[in-house]
Structures are given as C-alpha cells and as structure tokens.
C-alpha cells in the first residue's frame, strides 16, 4: 500500500491530473517490482485508459507519459463499486479510529482489585503508600 498527502499546489489539480499523478507516483514507488514486468493497472477513472494515445499534451502530461513509457502495462477501468479493496485501503484511517475507541469493562476491572484475594492486600498497600511517581 502506498499513500501520499498532496501539497497545496497539487490539491488544485483537476481530478484527471490528480488521478494521473497518482499513477505516476505509484509507479515510481513500486518501480523496482514493475519495471521489467507486464502488468494491468486498474483505475476507477475511465478517461485514464487513453493516456498513452493522446496527441496533444501539456508539458506536465508529456513528462509523465514519457516516464510511463518505461513500463509495460495496460490500464483497465474498474468501477468504484467493484474496487472494494482500494476503497477499504483509502479509508483505513477510519477503521483505525473506530478500533481505538474504548475497552468495555475496564473500569469494572479496576474496581475488582481491592476485593481480589490474591491482589487485594498489595493494591491497598499501593493506594496507601505510593512509591515515587507510580500509583494506581
């Protein structure tokens, strides 16, 4: 998985340019795996299928197309609905946030310390005579 935060200038790119830039950056990042292989690149941006066949290019696109020509690949469109793996990876920060909510029952466990037959006496001693900066 590869991800990159766009700077202010790149955030102003058109959707087409952002998608094109994403392909270039991914190929740069994974080039050591892809440079000598034929592969299929799936994109949910259908217009990108025609990158290599365009005749009029601005300077940025020309530079990117020149870089892409060092790879042997075809681009296939894959609608966003079918591309669930990429969708899940792009939302992984939401999953991590949800997983980091709270542990249920933790407060209840803390209340059981004092009544535990093996640990109760030590717990009471720590509560009454804390040593240094450590206490329960």
UniProtKB/TrEMBL annotation:
Q: Which UniProt keywords apply?
A: Endonuclease, Hydrolase, Nuclease, Nucleotidyltransferase, RNA-directed DNA polymerase, Transferase
Q: Heme: present as a keyword of the record?
A: no
Domain Reverse transcriptase RNase H-like residue range list: 1-71
Q: Where are the transmembrane segments?
A: none
- Pfam hit, one: RT_RNaseH
Record carries keyword Nuclease: yes
Could you give a GO molecular-function term held by this entry? Answer: hydrolase activity
Q: Which domain of life is it from?
A: Eukaryota
- List, alphabetically, the PANTHER family matched: RNA-DIRECTED DNA POLYMERASE, ZINC KNUCKLE (CCHC-TYPE) FAMILY PROTEIN
Q: What is this protein called?
A: Reverse transcriptase RNase H-like domain-containing protein
| Originating species | Opuntia streptacantha (Prickly pear cactus)
